[in-house]
Amino acid sequence: MSVFALCFQFIETMTSSLQQIMASTGNGLDYDKEPELKTFDDTKAGVKGLVDSGIQSVPKFFVASSEETCNEKSDLRHTHFNVPIIDLRDIDKVGARCEIVKEIGIASSTWGFFQVVNHDIPQDIADEVIESIQRFNEQPNHVKEKIYSRDKMKKVRFNSNFDLYKARFANWRDTLSCLMAPNPPPPEEYPEACREILLKFSKYVTKLGQDLFKLLSEALGLNSNHLTNMGCADGHVFYCHYYPACPEPNLTLGHTKHRDPDFLTILLQNQIGGLQVLHDNHWVNIPPVEGALVVNVGELLQVISNDKFKAAEHRVLANCAGPRLSVACFFTTHFEPSEKLFSPIEELLSDDSPPLYRGTTVKAYIDFFASAGLPAYSSLTRLRL
Ligand code: OGA
Ligand code: NI
Questions:
Q1: % of residues, the chain, pLDDT over 90
Q2: Using 50, 70 and 90 to split pLDDT, how confident is the model at 337?
Q3: 70 vs 86: CA distance, rounded Å
Q4: Region 256-284 average pLDDT
Q5: Is the CB of 260 inside a 6 Å radius of any atom of ligand 1?
Q6: pLDDT of 74 higher than 80
Q7: What is the DSSP letter of 233?
Q8: How many Å separate Cα 217 from the centre of its chain?
């Protein structure tokens, strides 16, 4: 290992430890927030429970540093920046497909984000998914609390803030997580409020995911089936988020900045807005577009594409309007015990383009991600050669 690499590794280790200490001491707010977190967690009612109780201010453990919430990186002069919107209508026509592949390649290597329209998921299905997640969250607490859990092995679980005890500050958000494939739980384990429609949506999302992995393979100059043959589309999990209206939206966030620790994410959002991507050092809004789905490159796709595609940092602002609802479909297989290693794709390597990452299993990757609270030290940096 070169002296440079050794120095880099040292700095990396120090940064990681410092970040963990920062995380455990809670945002420089020097008070022991653990009892408050536990009281909140024990209600099993999430952020929605707080709002329903009539609170008019944000409890201290949700308060983020101004650095975290500020918009200083967003610059009004750059509002002409827009995440690309890609029309998939003519995906099966040769000439049009070429153009779509080109657009997806550019979007994935520059933004790491794009929106797709005419994607074959019917609008009434998408609307019903959003309605069912709202229904799930707005039913009496005694129904939801039965599946409230922090057990990562559970294929279906509801909680508020997966990283509640590790994060520097809590987010204004509750989440229902449902493993859909492979090896889903018996259907009765999904909440009744959204069972049927999530199963239906999962079928559509599987097909769209396969189509997107084909387009992404082609954009990398590979055989259409390369990414699916590697197993990128073998599994997916739904993270169904509920962001209640927030009384002091400038003090906290709906979702701390992060990159997704999966291959690819397809996201359905309702019309409230608040999702932002960091692009050229500016926070750029990803506005809800009727009929569109947001697609973003995950860190594992960045690894196997050897940085040809970028997993971009993104976050969700809190909002005085609400609730905001979203369903993030993560293409990942971290529930599977597989030892299969994912490393940069051979065909993309050359003397000019040496491998930039060590291989990792999907499970090891997500375990590292989950071991730190958000904003996490990038798991990508850890694998960097
Ligand atoms: C996520 C995510 C954004 C949203 O689940 O990783 O970034 O709009 N969600 O809910
Ligand atoms: Ni995300």
A1: 83
A2: confident
A3: 30
A4: 96
A5: yes
A6: no
A7: T
A8: 21
Beta pairing, strands 113-117 & 85-87: parallel
275 lines ligand 1 (CB under 6 A): yes
Contact 283, 71 (CB under 8 A): yes
3-state secondary structure of 77: helix
Atom of ligand 1 nearest to the CA of 275: 8
Q: How many CA atoms within 13 Å lie on the side-chain side of 164?
A: 23
Identify whether the C-beta of residue 332 lies closer than 8 Å to the C-beta of residue 186.
Answer: no
- With CA atoms as reference, report the closest residue to 121 among 197, 233, 213: 197
pLDDT of residue 194: 98
Least Cα distance to 59 among 88, 84, 39 occurs for 39
Count of other CB atoms within 10 angstroms of residue 148: 19
pTM of the model: 0.91
Rounded Cα distance, 362 and 221, in Å: 24
Helix or strand run (H / E) with residue 374: none
The pLDDT value recorded for residue 158 is 98
Of 250, 271, 275, whose CA–CA distance to 260 is shortest?
275
Candidates 364, 340, 342; CA nearest to 355 is: 342
Judge whether 316 and 283 are in contact, CB under 8 Å.
Answer: no
Query: Which amino acid residue places its CA nearest to atom 4 of ligand 1?
Result: 326
First-last CA distance in the chain: 10
Question: In a mutational test of the pocket of ligand 1, which residue from 271, 314, 334 has the highest number of ligand atoms less than 8 Å from its CB?
Answer: 314
**Residue length, the chain?**
385
Closest CA to 324 of 277, 282, 288: 288
State yes or no: pLDDT of 20 exceeds 60: no
Pocket flag, ligand 1, residue 218 (CB < 6 Å): no
Edge-first strand listing for the sheet containing 314-317: 253-258, 314-317, 275-279, 282-285
Question: In the Cβ-directed half-sphere of 122, how many Cα atoms lie within 13 Å?
Answer: 6
Residue 160 φ/ψ region, left for φ over 0, alpha for ψ in the -120 to 50 degree band, beta for the rest? beta
Q: What interhelical angle do 94-110 and 195-219 show, nearest 10?
A: 90
Interatomic CA distance for residues 25 and 203, integer angstroms:
43
Q: Which amino acid is at 373?
A: G
Distance of CA 328 from the midpoint of ligand 1 (Å): 6
